[in-house]
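Translate structure to sequence.
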């Protein structure tokens, strides 16, 4: 069942009680026709073009962009989010529902901020693994967490997580999903590594629907590219806006999660709907 509210979760989505429709196979990124999505040089970010199935850029292009972005990433993130990102990440950690001694994975962990929050929850008898493709982002994550025994950062692709199946109580992804070439596969990989009954949490930038939210989005579309110019990486911030604009709406994301095998899929908006957090569970007892 897809439900469109997290807390309480009483409002059934339009799809509740019936099978979720299969997504349009024609929407695969390979069919983004007549759009040259490649960066014109290795030092330029991809365009951000995406379909409802995935980002059109290759993982190699995305990795190169985040490697270049890494030294400025945390500061720029704080500015771009209007100082909201901590609150968003805290919510992701809360929704993962972890307890001391549990195990979690944070996919597309970046500089490891969500992973740190998860590690605080599971404590020294638990285990948290942060996975990312960008060496430069991972270096930062490792450097600031060198003394934490319960927290480990590994290099790996979200499309084929280098992790054992059925071993984790929660899997999170914060502002990483929209970079993946195949969203459903990204969710399916998270499902695979979760134990039956384990929880997934996905936070992503979304286009708000309310009038106030649309105003906030205008701010995002205008201010973020300006901040990007200050950062000397304007192309990366153009990518940020373009990829956020192209990311599927919350209902479609919920459908993708359901297709990937999750149940109890719900979502909620934060900060006037500029960020959406989806949650779901691997079915209990599927044991596969
Ligand atoms: C916008 S950052 C988000 C980082 C972090 N989760 C946060 O909340 O700040 C996106 C991250 O996704 C990573 N990423 C992109 N594609 C990936 C892939 N296929 N597999 C693993 N990580 C990926 C990037 O390297 C980058 O660190």
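Result:
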């Amino acid at each position: 069942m897809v439900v469109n509210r997290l807390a309480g979760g009483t409002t059934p989505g339009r799809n509740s009680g019936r099978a979720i429709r299969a997504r349009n196979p024609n929407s695969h990124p390979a069919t983004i026709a007549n759009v040259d999505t490649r960066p014109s040089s290795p030092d330029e970010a991809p365009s951000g073009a995406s379909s409802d199935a995935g980002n059109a850029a290759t993982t190699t292009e995305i990795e190169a962009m985040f490697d270049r972005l890494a030294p400025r990433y945390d500061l720029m993130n704080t500015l771009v989010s209007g100082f909201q990102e901590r609150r968003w990440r805290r919510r992701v950690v809360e929704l993962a529902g972890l307890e001391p001694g549990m195990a979690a994975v944070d996919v597309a962990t970046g500089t490891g901020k969500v992973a740190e929050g998860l590690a605080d929850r599971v404590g020294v008898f638990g285990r948290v693994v942060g996975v990312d493709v960008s060496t430069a982002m991972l270096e930062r994550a490792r450097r600031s967490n060198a003394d934490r025994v319960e927290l480990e950062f590994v290099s790996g692709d979200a499309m084929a997580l280098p992790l054992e199946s059925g071993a984790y109580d929660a899997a999170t992804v914060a502002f990483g999903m929209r970079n993946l070439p195949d969203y459903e596969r990204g969710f399916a990989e998270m499902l695979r590594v979760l134990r039956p009954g384990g929880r997934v949490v996905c936070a992503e930038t979304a286009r708000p629907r309310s009038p106030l939210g649309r105003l906030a989005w205008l701010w995002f579309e205008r201010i973020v590219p300006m901040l990007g110019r200050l950062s000397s990486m304007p192309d990366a911030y153009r990518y940020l806006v373009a990829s956020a604009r192209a990311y599927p709406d919350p209902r479609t994301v919920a459908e993708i999660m359901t297709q990937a095998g999750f149940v109890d899929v719900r979502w909620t908006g934060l900060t006037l709907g500029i960020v959406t957090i989806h949650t779901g569970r691997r079915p209990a007892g599927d044991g596969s």
